[in-house]
Design goal:
There is one protein chain. By secondary structure, the protein is mainly β. 0% of the residues lie in helices and 55% in strands. The strands form two sheets. Strands 2, 4, 5, 6, 9, 10 and 11 form a seven-stranded mixed beta sheet that branches. The protein has a four-stranded antiparallel beta sheet with strand order 1-3-8-7, with no helix packed on it. The radius of gyration is 14 Å and the shape is elongated. The termini are far apart. The mean pLDDT is 96.
Length: 121
């Protein structure tokens, strides 16, 4: 059973930074891709940042230049560095990762439970 657990969220003032982490349990062979999504109350979940298997990165327009997605190691598989946070960045942030469990095996995608980020002005 694989679980993704996000951490690093919290309440900050505008202009401050946070670093979200995504930890994975289970015997993982490799991480193909890792993404971060956000969701507000009564809103659809939307992509914030995506690090693809070839290390291409994609970002939502409003976070470009402020957020950076990166890979971690076997246990903490990825990070989202968030700088110059603004009140409009207030969301619950979710890790979404594509994992392989053996060499040449297929990729399975998993969601974490999310971590709340609240930015006040």
């Amino acid at each position: 059973q694989v679980q993704l657990v996000e951490s690093g969220g919290g309440s900050v003032q505008a202009g401050e930074s946070l670093r979200l982490s995504c930890a994975a349990s289970g015997n993982i062979f490799s991480v193909d891709d890792i993404a971060w999504h956000r969701q507000g109350p009564r809103k659809q979940r939307e992509l914030v940042a995506h690090l693809l298997g070839d290390n291409t990165t994609l970002y939502a327009d409003d976070v470009k230049g402020r957020f950076t997605v990166s890979r971690g190691d076997a246990q903490t598989i990825g990070f989202l560095q968030m700088s110059d946070l603004q009140p409009e960045d207030t969301f619950k942030y979710y890790c979404y990762a594509g994992l392989r469990f053996r060499s040449g095996g297929r990729t399975y995608h998993f969601w974490g439970q999310g971590t709340q980020v609240t930015v006040s002005s």
